[in-house]
């Protein structure tokens, strides 16, 4: 066991505080790379480390947060990645001495992983691997993944850590005060995904104060037994005399200590606004407390998407795995697989989820299809269409790995068998990418005839999976349903096998239930009856068609009778609604073309939108009618759903991309005529700030809403912004800043625009910006997010008109 893990088992460890603000106080200039100081002024970095060590920090975090090739490229330092990151570890080691642990810091790159962005998952892994290799060579004690907003980027960083080093890993996401990350990930979804990938400690840093971080960690604890970390800001930022202040005193940072320890928090540190005084207070407050903690048992399998979690196991209702995304017997889906389309996948994902599927089986294995590419495409499509976690259904290791890389969260692999070649190929993939597995109770000799034979295969799968590092809770055994028309006696053996696997191996079970009735008339009757019997035997998950009412009726009734639907609440809710309002039948008359256009934007139907625009043109609608009466209402509905928390940023961006395709076709029809503009907006990230993700999203959505956008990029000087505003005669100037050290540049820009007599509206936004700051510097509006920015700009310019 590593020094870090041994120490953490004995006591709560104290991690240091903010680095950036301490370096700024010692001469770091706006727009200068903090990491470059590791080479040019190591004594300054060492002095900060020494102050935290003297304050009692058990862990010093290296000055390498922005040490990736991507971030260093902004300063022309991308060829010095290894040198800068090694130096960061060596400086912290010398400053702390032998008694202090060194945590090597990795922060986000500022890029989004595909499909939200354009960076491939494998490319992102390699970017982080460069830092990881340097840390391992320099002798770091652990790696700290900090301030991540995108679960897929954090997943790539964690895969790199585990593949290229043996160092323990701390993984942290940043959450907003609505309890989710910027891209919609919940604390539960985050920890389920990160736990499965092998993070040693999981938690949250930045974004929130101690109370907010405690709430996030409390939610995480409901689905994971991993040790937790709290790295809170010194309260929420406020503006005082033109300066951003984090107001929490050192003593206020210690209020939650007792509750944190009881929760299983084993590392406590500070983020923005914390100083050596805060760390000293944290250390002193912890010293007299009982720091003993025993991890709770981990007995339930949890699976995740980007935004949601599903449980599978003996203590929860039977999971329903929707079976219809499978090309067998489906000519339309097979044709789409060959054409590279995903309309069927997205439609079935939505419909099955609406009908009660808690997981979605995804099979792309049709003859002549590039299965790895098809599975990646399907996973991307479903990630943008539904919140339901996925089951990747393939026996091809190459396809599985592509699908695992594409998935946002923790998936279930369908499947591995007791055959040696299957175990050898599939189990390492499941471990590397943090997946649970379905184990088929068959081996080289085929399907055992008896329940005892299937139990023996299941035992072999369990032993091999545990040896590969897959926990027992993540092993689900398929006791195999055989058609009763051909092998009638085997149905009883399947039910016996379910009971044996639960009793002797304590593993969850799954069945492809509808196989039982193949070749017989009135199949739903037989399938539903067998389903009820399997549920009574202890079945934990069923692969069925959730649109089959008889099967779902059997499920709901059985959950009541088996005591898994507490107070019959789900049963009552479903059937009360069913009596009050009969469900709409699938196949009703299609919506009018304007509604179809709007729904395509809402659903992010990039493949189908151009055909709908063509249809609308054929029906006689003019281009502007298509835009104003079909496309824009759809985008406005996306904004409403985003505001109410029904959809999240990835879905918004997919809708924006769909809108872009529609506009491209409309512009062709206008034969070079410009689309009417709502106004001309100049956008820029202020000088000294190299963060532009939020600004880029605002630009995209403004364009989709009919504005002309001039984007100056990032790290833009005030004089250049003023000159561009004059040159392009813009209606508004939008400014973005993510760092507390660059926010003051917004005031500079607003003042210089006034001084130059440029009559424009000004809009500001970014993580450290607030309404209060907008009012203080005289900006016309502040926006919390991209969609609010669009709504406020529209209102402001329309009011002016």
Describe what this molecule looks like in 3D:
The protein has 801 residues and is an alpha/beta fold. The protein is 47% helix and 14% strand. The protein contains 31 helices and 25 strands. It has an 8-stranded parallel sheet with strand order 1-10-7-6-5-4-3-2. An 8-stranded parallel β-barrel has the order 13-14-15-16-17-18-19-20, surrounded by 6 helices. The radius of gyration is 28 Å and the shape is globular. The termini are far apart.
**How would you classify the quaternary structure?**
single chain
Q: β content, as a range?
A: 5-15%
| Most strands sheet | 8 strands, parallel
**What's the average pLDDT?**
92
Write down the Rg.
Answer: 28 Å
Separation of the first and last Cα atoms: 68 Å
Number of helices: 31
Which percent bin holds the helix content?
40-55%
The strand order across the widest sheet is 1-10-7-6-5-4-3-2
Number of strands: 25
Which class best fits the helix and strand makeup? Answer: alpha/beta
Q: Note poorly predicted spans.
A: 581-589
Cα shape:
globular
């Amino acid at each position: 066991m590593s020094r870090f893990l041994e120490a953490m088992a004995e006591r709560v460890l104290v991690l240091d505080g903010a680095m950036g603000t301490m370096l700024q106080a010692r001469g770091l200039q706006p727009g200068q790379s903090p990491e470059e100081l590791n080479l040019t002024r190591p004594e300054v970095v060492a002095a900060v480390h020494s102050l935290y060590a003297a304050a009692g920090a058990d862990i010093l975090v290296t000055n390498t947060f922005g040490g990736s090739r991507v971030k260093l490229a902004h300063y022309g330092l991308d060829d010095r990645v290894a040198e800068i990151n090694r130096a960061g570890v060596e400086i912290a080691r010398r400053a702390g001495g032998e008694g202090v642990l060194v945590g090597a810091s990795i922060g986000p790159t500022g890029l989004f992983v595909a499909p939200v962005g354009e960076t491939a998952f494998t490319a992102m892994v390699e970017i982080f691997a460069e830092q990881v290799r340097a840390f391992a060579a320099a002798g770091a004690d652990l790696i700290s993944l900090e301030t991540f907003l995108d679960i897929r980027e954090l997943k790539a960083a964690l895969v790199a850590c585990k593949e290229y080093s043996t160092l323990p890993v701390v993984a942290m996401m940043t959450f907003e005060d609505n309890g989710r990350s910027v891209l919609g990930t919940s604390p539960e979804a985050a920890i389920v995904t990160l736990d499965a990938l092998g993070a040693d400690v999981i938690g949250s840093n930045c974004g929130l104060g101690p109370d907010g971080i405690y709430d996030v960690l409390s939610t995480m604890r409901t689905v994971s037994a991993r040790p937790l970390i709290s790295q809170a800001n010194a309260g929420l930022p406020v503006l005082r005399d033109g300066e951003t202040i984090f107001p929490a005193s050192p003593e206020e940072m210690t209020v939650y200590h007792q509750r944190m320890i009881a929760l299983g928090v084993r590392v406590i540190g500070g983020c923005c606004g914390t100083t050596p005084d805060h760390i000293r207070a944290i250390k002193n407050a912890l010293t007299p407390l009982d720091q003993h903690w025993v991890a709770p048992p981990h007995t339930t399998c949890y699976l995740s998407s980007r935004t949601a979690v599903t449980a599978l196991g003996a203590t929860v209702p039977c999971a329903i795995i929707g079976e219809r995304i499978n090309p067998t017997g489906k000519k339309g889906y097979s044709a789409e697989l060959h054409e590279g389309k995903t309309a069927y996948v997205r439609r079935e994902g939505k419909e099955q989820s609406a009908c009660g599927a808690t997981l979605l089986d995804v099979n792309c294995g049709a003859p002549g299809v590039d299965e790895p590419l098809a599975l990646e495409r399907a996973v991307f499509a479903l990630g943008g269409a539904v919140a339901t976690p996925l089951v990747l259904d393939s026996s091809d290791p190459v396809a599985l790995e592509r699908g695992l890389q594409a998935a946002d969260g923790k998936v279930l692999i369908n499947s591995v068998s007791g055959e040696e070649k299957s175990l050898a190929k599939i189990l390492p993939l499941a471990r590397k990418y943090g997946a649970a597995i379905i184990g088929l109770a068959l081996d080289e000799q085929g399907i055992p005839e008896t329940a005892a034979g299937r139990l023996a295969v299941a035992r072999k799968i369990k032993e091999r999976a545990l040896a590969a590092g897959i926990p027992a809770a993540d092993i689900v055994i398929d006791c195999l349903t055989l058609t009763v028309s051909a092998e009638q006696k085997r149905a009883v053996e399947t039910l016996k096998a379910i009971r044996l696997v639960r009793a002797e191996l304590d593993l969850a079970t799954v069945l492809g239930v509808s196989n039982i009735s193949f070749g017989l008339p009135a199949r739903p009757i037989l399938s539903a009856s067998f389903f009820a019997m399997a549920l009574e035997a202890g079945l934990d998950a069923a692969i069925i068609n959730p649109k089959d009412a008889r099967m779902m009726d059997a499920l709901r009734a059985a959950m009541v009778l088996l005591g898994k639907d507490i107070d019959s609440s789900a049963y009552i809710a479903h059937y009360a609604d069913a009596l009050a309002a009969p469900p709409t039948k699938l196949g009703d008359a299609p919506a009018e073309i304007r509604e179809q256009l709007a729904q395509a934007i809402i659903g992010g139907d990039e493949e189908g939108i151009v055909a709908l625009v063509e249809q609308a043109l054929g029906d006689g609608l003019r281009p502007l009618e298509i835009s104003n009466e079909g496309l824009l209402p759809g985008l406005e509905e996306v904004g409403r759903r985003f505001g109410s928390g029904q959809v999240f940023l990835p879905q918004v961006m997919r809708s924006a991309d769909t809108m872009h395709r529609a506009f491209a076709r409309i512009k062709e029809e206008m034969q070079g005529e410009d689309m009417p503009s709502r106004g001309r907006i100049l956008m820029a990230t202020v000088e000294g700030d190299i963060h532009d993700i939020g600004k880029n999203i605002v630009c995209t959505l403004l364009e989709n809403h009919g504005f002309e956008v001039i984007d100056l990029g990032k790290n833009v000087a005030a004089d250049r912004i003023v000159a561009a505003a004059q040159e392009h005669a813009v209606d508004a100037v939008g400014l973005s800043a993510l760092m507390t050290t660059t926010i003051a540049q917004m005031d500079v820009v607003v003042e210089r625009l006034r001084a130059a007599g440029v009559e424009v509206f000004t809009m500001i936004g970014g993580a450290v910006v607030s309404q209060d700051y907008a009012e203080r510097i005289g900006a016309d509006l502040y926006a919390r997010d991209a969609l609010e920015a669009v709504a406020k700009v529209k209102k402001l310019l329309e009011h002016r008109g």
